Amino acid sequence: MTLASEIAASRDAILARVAHAVSSAGRAPGSVALVAVSKQQPDDRIDAMLATGQRLFGENRVQEAQARWTDRRAQLSDLRLRLIGPLQSNKAADAVALFDAIDSLDRPKLAAAIADAAQKHGRCPELLVQVNTGEEPQKAGLMPAEVDAFIGAARRDYGLPISGLMCIPPVDEEPAMHFALLVKIAARNGLAELSMGMSDDFETAIRFGATQIRVGSALFGQRS
């Protein structure tokens, strides 16, 4: 099997699982977007994934994404990039210039930097607030108890259009309770977008209402 056919088969299999999970949850077809997590993937795998028609990708680091996507973006008008990794405030301007969405907003200093960059660029990416649902000290994201006040301040003080939430549950805990918590926080803040679920748990996330799932290894194969 060639790399191109291997990648195409992996994507078809994931899309079939997504469609089944969506149908089983009684949700509308097409209500869940597949974000292909392309961080650290070699060029041949990226190009093979693009050849399947995949146009929505997630990246962890601004500089890596700039190197990978700047030229490709010039050639592909329908390409959409989401920053799913932690963002340093001093990289906010670069992130606003490159990404269609920043899914890891989690502190006032970063909100201020994004607002400033958005004003200068005349456009603001879609913004999701990252929630540290497991309250893990090593992980980025706001503590659940802080989220409501932060969203209010981001809207009021910085004029930021917050559209949803993102979480990464602890690896050693049942993800369902974390997805349920994210849904609850989103509902009381009037947020429609939920980025939750990865290669191992996206079907559970879809059952709880995920609108975006982030899949890397199950699409591209394990990184070397």
What does the overall shape look like?
Answer: globular
Strand content: 15-25%
As a percent range, the share of helical residues equals 40-55%
User: Whole-number average pLDDT?
Assistant: 96
User: What is the count of DSSP helices, taking H or I runs of 4+ residues?
Assistant: 9
Question: Whole-Å distance between the termini?
Answer: 19 Å
How large, in whole angstroms, is the Cα Rg? 17 Å
Give the spatial strand order of the biggest sheet: 7-6-5-4-3-2-1-8
Count all strands and give the number: 8
Return the string of H and E elements.
HEHEHEHEHEHEHEHEH
Backbone structural class: alpha/beta
**Low-confidence segments, ≥5 residues, pLDDT <50?**
none
Tell me about the largest β-sheet: 8 strands, parallel
Can you describe what's shown?
- With 224 residues, this protein is α/β, with parallel strands linked by helices.
- It is 46% helix and 17% strand.
- The chain is built from nine helices and eight strands.
- The protein has an eight-stranded parallel β-sheet.
- The chain is globular.
- The two termini are 19 Å apart.
- The relative contact order is 0.15.
